[in-house]
Amino acid sequence: MSITKVHARTVYDSRGNPTVEVEITTENGLFRAIVPSGASTGIHEAVELRDGNKSEWMGKGVTKAVSNVNSIIGPALIKSELCVTNQKGIDELMISLDGTSNKSRLGANAILGVSLCVARAAAAQKGITLYKYIAELADARQDPFVIPVPFFNVLNGGAHAGGSLAMQEFKIAPVGAQSFAEAMRMGSEVYHHLKILAKEQYGPSAGNVGDEGGVAPDIDTAEDALDMIVEAINICGYEGRVKVGIDSAPSVFYKDGKYDLNFKEPNSDPSHWLSPAQLAEYYYSLLKKYPIISLEDPYAEDDWSSWSAFLKTVNVQIIADDLTCTNKTRIARAIEEKCANTLLLKLNQIGTLTESIEAANQAFDAGWGVMISHRSGETEDPFIADLVVGFRCGQIKSGALSRSESLAKYNELLRIEEELGDDCIYAGHRFHDGNKL
Ligand code: 2PG
Ligand code: MG
């Protein structure tokens, strides 16, 4: 079934910034997708096309990307008469229409919106759910489906919050739950106890939330954050069943080959900046003291040698986000140089579903795990819930248990788990090996 109409418009993301929504019409109906946007974006990501006109939307308008869908991509797709079930053909057509290596002409935000709509239209044509269709596209086993462990980002710092905390995300993972539904209950209880503790220890405003819905108290160190999180876990009686993850997102505090944990302070003293080896020592101390099972972006996006030196010395999950940017050349290098053991997969870092499938399979083939991720500027579109089940990844992060842009994904996973019943298993402690379960 080919496409009869393509239409894009400007809508708004969870930070109130403009973003691209695309609608595609086929004989089966109208299908829609909205594109998310990062704040701590890696410099090697595909280009999110912004107008740059400071007098409108502070330069963040997406009218060029919207018009690229309406006047270039849409007409070309309709003319091509490609069937919506030909995801690869359609994605390749858009990549060649763009003609650049980083999608800077048409914009990854324009291309991704269309790519995701096409998948929804194809699933409808086949009369199957989106996650099942994605599993077919990715050539993933479906028997049983794997429901991921949610890594809830319950405490926000770095570029996602005010306050002086340098590290960006402190996540809780209910690996000891029996089901996704139970993981949600456990996560919700810990999150609410954490909020109470934050207010008690740092005053009423400490319960205010950051960009990803986690509490954002004005604390200085990772230890302050982790002490409070562990206390909340223990109050709920979930010691051993709820573990912890961190995304340092240090590309924003990497300066002159060193790491400045005081980067929000304008007059930060360079003599306190940490060398890569000192930062490693700091991570070891955290790993020793807290129930950490996952460290994302321990080092900056181009500090390759520090990544590989560090990986040799730890046995937790090490996730590459800014390092790899869901880009196959960078993933290949990270695999070759043994920099990490898990890929963070973000659709808009690369800009098409086809390339995202290739990235996931590239990681799996190397024995890596894959975590599916939202962006800190999100929308009500729950696409990644279907994506994580279709890809059989075993783990997802979509922010905290607050704000509907985050809950849209978690709630969709609750529905999927219920719908699948005995035909799915919760990844639990085996979250890293979802594709092998
Ligand atoms: C990250 C993400 C998502 P952003 O660093 O992993 O949590 O943040 O979308 O701002 O890049
Ligand atoms: Mg990250």
Written overview of the protein:
This protein is of the alpha/beta class. 39% of the residues lie in helices and 16% in strands. The chain has helices at residues 63-80, 87-98, 108-126, 130-138, 180-202, 222-235, 276-289, 304-311, 328-336, 347-350, 353-365, 383-391, 404-420, and strands at 5-12, 18-26, 29-34, 145-147, 149-150, 152-156, 169-173, 243-247, 254-255, 258-259, 292-296, 317-320, 342-345, 369-373, 395-397, 424-426. It has a nine-stranded mixed sheet. It has a three-stranded antiparallel sheet with strand order 1-2-3, covered by helices on one side. The protein has a two-stranded parallel sheet with strand order 4-16. Helix 5 crosses helix 6 (222-235) and helix 9 runs parallel beside helix 11 (353-365). The protein is globular, with a radius of gyration of 21 Å. The mean pLDDT is 97. The site of magnesium ion has 6 residues, from loops. Residues 247, 249, 296-297, 321, 344 line the site of magnesium ion.
Topology:
Layout: E1 5-12, E2 18-26, E3 29-34, H1 63-80, H2 87-98, H3 108-126, H4 130-138, E4 145-147, E5 149-150, E6 152-156, E7 169-173, H5 180-202, H6 222-235, E8 243-247, E9 254-255, E10 258-259, H7 276-289, E11 292-296, H8 304-311, E12 317-320, H9 328-336, E13 342-345, H10 347-350, H11 353-365, E14 369-373, H12 383-391, E15 395-397, H13 404-420, E16 424-426
Parallel strand pairs: 4-16, 5-15, 8-11, 11-12, 12-13, 13-14, 14-15
Antiparallel strand pairs: 1-2, 2-3, 6-7, 7-8, 9-10
The protein binds 2-phosphoglyceric acid and magnesium ion (MG).
2-phosphoglyceric acid (2PG) is lined by residues 38-41, 169, 212, 247, 249, 321, 373, 375-376.
